[in-house]
Each structure stands twice: as C-alpha cells, then as structure tokens.
Target: Histidine kinase N-terminal 7TM region domain-containing protein
Amino acid sequence: MRNKFVIIFIFLLAIFVVLWVRIQILGIRDTNENYFFNFYSIIPIFGAFVGWLVAARFGGLKSVLGRAISMLAAGLLAWGLGGFVWLWYNLVFQVPVPQPSLADYLFVGAYIFWAFGTIYLAKAAGIRFFPQETFAGKTILVVVPVLLVVLITVFYILLRTGSSSNLLSYVVFVPLLIYTGSILPLVLNLYGGKFFKATGLVVLGFFILYLAGTSFFYSVANNTYYNGHLSDLFFAAGFSVISTGIALFYPD
Model:
C-alpha cells in the first residue's frame, strides 16, 4: 500500500515540475496557467489523507506516534486548504489576495500543527519537555500558538504597507529551521531501523519548505513574485517529500 502512495506522490510532483518548466520556458507571469500551478495544494491534502490512514494503523490519537503523524497530517491539510483559498482569489475572483487573509491563517495554523507533531515525535524518542500538567507546560501550549498568529499577522501588515524587510522573513522561518534541524533528527535515534527513511524524508521535506518560505517572502518583499515562482516549486517538492515520508511509516 505504501509503495502505491509513494508512486502517486512522485507522479503528482512530476506533473507540477513539467508545468513549472513550461512556465519558465514561455516566460509567462500573469496567466491562468500560472494560477493553475497552485493546484499543487492537492499534494498536501492527499498527504493529510494518507497521514491519517497511517496514524490509524498506530492507534490514532491513542499512541504518541499516532498523534505525531496526525498532527503532521493536520498541518498538511491546513496548508492545502490555504492554497486553495489563495487559488480561489486569484483564479475565480481574479483579485489580489488580501493580507492577512484566511489563507495566511491556515498557513500559520499548519506550522502550529507541525510544531506539535515534531514535539510528539520527539516524545516518542524519549525527549522530555515541560509536562503538560504543569503551569509552564500549559503556558507554552497557549503562548506558542498565539505568538505565531500574532507574528504572522504583523508580518503581513508590514509586508502590505511596504514596511517589511528581508530580515523579517527570516524571523518567521528560522524557528522552523531550528526545530526541524534539532528536534526531528533526534527522532532518528528511535526510528533508526525501518523508519529511518520515513523520518529522514520528513526532515528533508521541512528543510525544503524552509527554502520555499524564505524564497517566497524574499520575492514578495522585492515585488518579483508571480504564481509559478521557484518558491512554489519548492513548496510542491517539500510537500511531496514530507507526504512520501509519512507514507513510509505505513506498516508492511
């Protein structure tokens, strides 16, 4: 079953790679074909579906690994839905996406789910965090999501008013690089056997998303972004790699 899922993710990515190459060769920047590229959001949505199938095989929310995969899947779904909101504004309404928009909050929601997913993976590896029943633990669970929402809102307001800087882009995405670079690799110690490839691909996928995010915000800040930009290809690739990694958790 998991091999079939992997083939599907590779096939979907190949489609968007071909479309991206076509966009670059033709040099088009503001056509329906550019907007069609945002249909790559189907990749994280399908990845979420696969993720919940995999999580169910591990007992769903009853197990730490099941909760970890469920959180990762929820993040994929949030981002995928955000992508279709973005597509709806551009392709159907044919108006600029308001900033911040529902899509933006879905995007930041995805990072919140992914953060908790990595924490659960780390817990499965035996890494201790603040216990949730303590005051510090409860505070972290409340403050971190709120802080992320406020941060992304401020960023988009600054971006819209032309007051943003390239440095602010890194302020948003460096934390993503930190926890994917420090927390997830530790999980490799636990899943060093048959889950080594699965976890490694998830780590790689998040690193690709880091490149995608910084590339996207850099291009927006410099007014060089267009639908079908290199950052969009990175997003499509990152989601394909993460989804493939999740699929490889599926038991034989």
